[in-house]
Amino acid sequence: MSVISSLTSSSSCPDLYHSPSYSTNGTISDTSEISHMILRHYNHTGRLQNRTISNTQSHISVAGAVFLFFSIFIILENLLVLVAVISRILHSRRWVYVCIANITLSDLLTGASYLVNICMSGSQTFRLTPALWLFREGMLFVAMAASIFSLLLIAVERYTTMMKPLPQKSPRKTYYRIYSLVALCWVLALVIGFLPLLGWNCVCSLDECSTLLPLYSKTYIFFSLFIFFIILLAIFVLYGAIYCHVHRSAQLGPHRSRKRSLALLKTVITIVGVFVLCWGPLFLLLLVDFFCDSRQCTLLFSADYFISLAVLNSGLNPVIYALGSSEMRKAIAELLCCCCLKAGLCHPDTFMSKDTSSTSESRRDSLRNSFSKVRNLSVASPPSTPSKPRRAPKKCRLSSTTSCLSVSSG
Q1: Three-state secondary structure call for residue 99
Q2: pLDDT of res. 381
Q3: Residue 27: phi, psi to the nearest 5?
Q4: Digit-coded pLDDT (tens) for 225-244
Q5: In sequence order, what are the residues at sequence separation of 6 or more whose Cβ sits closer than 8 angstroms to the Cβ of residue 311?
Q6: CA distances, 298 to each of 44, 46, 310 (Å)
Q7: Contact 12/205 with Cβ under 8 angstroms?
Q8: What is the CATH number of the domain that holds 223?
Q9: Compositional bias (Polar residues) spans (predicted)?
C-alpha cells in the first residue's frame, strides 16, 4: 500500500506541488483537509468551475437521491438473480449458467461501485487522497472490463459448442476450463481497471490529464477504449458466424433443439446489443475527451447522465435473463416464493389451495371416467378376461416451492 501511495503522491513530483498558490474558479472556505493535488487537477481541467468546497456536509440533491436509489435497486436486483443462478448451477450444472453468474457478479460490482462513487463525490471528492480517488474510479473500469470479458467468454463458448461440438469431453474438464477462464477474466479486469493506481496516471503531467477524469492519463483512456473496441468487434464476429451456421443448418437438425439454440442465441445477442446501447455514449464521450483539449469541450462537464446510462445496463441485464429464459423465470419465482414464506409475508395455504383444487378436479375426472367405463361394460357384457396388473402411479418430483412449503409447515 505504501508503494501505491508513493506512486500517486505529490512527493513524486515536488516541483509541481510545491505550493497551493493557484487561482481557482470555485469557492474554498477551508483548506485544512483538502487534497491540493486533486484540487489542482480539477482546476486545470475546468472541473472546479462554479463549485463550492467547504467542510460543511452538503445536502444531497434530487438527482443524487434518484441515482442513489437506482444503485441500491441494481445491487438488490443482481443479488437476487445471482442467488437464483447459483441454485440453477447446483441443479443443472450447465456452463452457460456459470457465465451468466459471472456477468451478474460484474453487474453487482457496477452497482456497488456506482453507490460508492455517489457517496464519495461532490465536496467529498477533494478530501480523498489521490490513491483513494483512483481506486474509486478504477472500480467502475474493473466492472466494465469484467462485463466485456464475460460477454466475450460466452461468445467463445457458444461458438465452440455450436461450430465444433465435442460430446466426448467430460463435464468435469469443461467446468475446470470454464472456471479457469472466469478467473482469467477477473484477473485481466483488475489489471486493466487499476493500471492508473499502479502508476499509469497524470499526477506529474497536467497537460496529459483527462477532462472527464482529471487524474487519468489520456493515453490510458485511449488504451482502454481500444481494448474494449477490439473485444466487442470479436464478439460481433463470433455471433455473426454462429448465426450463419444456424441459418445454414436450419433444415438438418431437429426442430426442438434448433428452436432452443435460436432462443439462447437471441437472448445473448440482446444482452450484447443492450450493452452497446448503454455503454456506447460513454465510450464516445471518452473518445471526445481524448481528442479534446482542457476547457475546450463543455460537453465533458456534464457526464453524470452518460455514466448513469452506462450503469443502467447493469439493471437491464437481469430483466433480459428473466424474459429470455423460462428456466431463469422459474428459478427467480421459486426463490421469491421461498423468501416470502420464510419471512412470513405469505401463508402456505395460498400455495396449497391451488394444488388442492387441481387435485380434486383430477380426482373428479378420474371418477367420471371410471363410471363411464363401468356403464359401457354393463351394456356390452363382454366375456370376462383376466385383469391386468395396475401400473404404479408416476412419481412426481417436488419443486423447490414445495420443499419451501414443507420447511415452513414443519
Answers
A1: helix
A2: 46
A3: -110, 125
A4: 999 999 989 988 888 888 77
A5: 70, 71, 74, 110, 111, 114
A6: 14, 9, 20
A7: no
A8: 1.20.1070.10
A9: 368-382
Percent of the chain's residues with pLDDT above 70: 64
Model confidence, pTM: 0.74
Instruction: Tell me the C-alpha to C-alpha distance, in Å, between residue 108 and each of 72, 128, 267, 313, 328.
Output: 10, 24, 20, 11, 17
Q: Is 364 domain-assigned?
A: no
In a domain, 84, yes or no: yes
What are the residues whose beta carbons fall under 8 Å from the beta carbon of 371, sequence distance 6 or more? none
Residue 145 within a domain? yes
Residue 319's domain comprises 62-337
Q: How many domains does the chain have?
A: 1
Q: Is residue 188 in some structural domain? A: yes
Cβ-contact 351, 408 below 8 angstroms: no
pLDDT digits (tens, 9 = 90+) for 21-45: 455 555 555 555 677 788 888 888 8
Report the amino acid identity of residue 173. Answer: K
Of 212 and 301, which is predicted with more confidence?
Answer: 212
Mean pLDDT, to the nearest integer, of 9-23? Answer: 57
Reading the block at residue 43, the C-alpha cell is 482546476
